[in-house]
Amino acid sequence: FLFFVVLLFCFPLRDCNFNTHSLTYIYTGLSKPVGLPGIHEFTAMGLLDGRMIDYYDSENQTKVPKQEWMREHFPADYWGKGTQSRRIKQQWFKVNIGILMERMRQNDSASPHVLQWMVRCEGETQPNGALRFVHGMSKYNYDGNDFLSFDDKSRVWVAPVKEALPSKTKWDNDQVLKEYTKGYLENECIDWLSKSVTSEQKQLKKAPPPDVYVFAKKSRVETNLTVTCLATGFYSKNIIVRIRRNGRVLTEDDGLSSSGVLPNNDETFQRRDHVEILKSDLSKFSCEVVHEATRVDVVKTWSKKLFLLSLLLIITLFLHKYSELLCIIYITAAAPVFQSSNTSVIILLGLHGGVKGHMSVM
């Protein structure tokens, strides 16, 4: 049921476009409690570029920040006023769910019914840094189906189902409501979007750059290795990760897989891309990471040749440092396995306990 509630609204995130930002508010009301943890009769959340920035539910009845920069840059009265606004909307949802259930003859329904409202504005960054309105949306959804939406250009409400026609007629005749909705999307929402983006960017200046790693490990297929490019510990989530083979960017057609951007437990993010290769492949692989927020553009390389050279260097340094100890082990050991005349056997037995982690690929 939670899965159903969350996915009633699906909308594209513009994370790939650094010049476009969006502010979205999603309100969800249920006709009755469902008795499941984490699912409330009413919830409201704000999202900046798809990332939750504030939250309210009917159990706690307090609007709270979900990002540190929201807590730092927005005063106490903002949260007080926001809480009052959310409580009013909670009552509005309760009344209107009742109206819709009666209109659709669902008063005797044993199943809960869901009403959602999404308000969203998008702005494009101009050369002077200001945000220009490019798109707005005010849309209602009932029990998983589109119910009513506002056409910002025509200033009319659109009803895709006959049950919504009474609401459309009533709201189309309310000029104040139409003017307010259009004004909110094009002006007030953009103002809040601009304030939020500015506050987040101040936080970004303190944000750490991504840590970048490229490595290989055994694959489930005996003849293969998995080459992985990992970027972690970064904020914001906008990042470009590429794996190249001898300079050519690999794609899904080459077997490339990506975790996508995932959250860490400290409000930073990570992304892991990987591709399987043959153990015999001597190509040069590079991991390229671009993180515009922290001005990071880094390339790290991996190849079987480089790996073998690194491993040989480790072994050489180890032998140089512990050569006397190995000789003592060889002379004094009583186990038959040490009686081989093959020096490589003695060396590998001496190294096994100390550096087996570095040799796991072989």
UniProtKB/TrEMBL annotation:
Mind telling me which GO cellular component terms the entry cites? external side of plasma membrane; extracellular space
* Domain of life, per lineage: Eukaryota
The region annotated as signal peptide is 1-16
Q: Is this entry keyworded NAD? A: no
Q: Which SUPFAM superfamilies match?
A: Immunoglobulin, MHC antigen-recognition domain
Example GO biological process: immune response
Q: Where does the record place the Ig-like domain?
A: 210-303
Q: Which InterPro entries match?
A: Ig-like_dom (IPR007110), Ig-like_dom_sf (IPR036179), Ig-like_fold (IPR013783), Ig/MHC_CS (IPR003006), Ig_C1-set (IPR003597), MHC_class-I_related (IPR050208), MHC_I-like_Ag-recog (IPR011161), MHC_I-like_Ag-recog_sf (IPR037055)
Specify whether Glycoprotein is a keyword of the entry. Answer: yes
Q: Which UniProt keywords apply?
A: Glycoprotein, Immunoglobulin domain, Signal
Q: Which Pfam families match?
A: C1-set, MHC_I
Q: Which family does it belong to?
A: Belongs to the MHC class I family.
Report the PANTHER family cross-referenced here: LOC571647 PROTEIN-RELATED, MHC CLASS I-RELATED
Q: What is this protein called?
A: Ig-like domain-containing protein
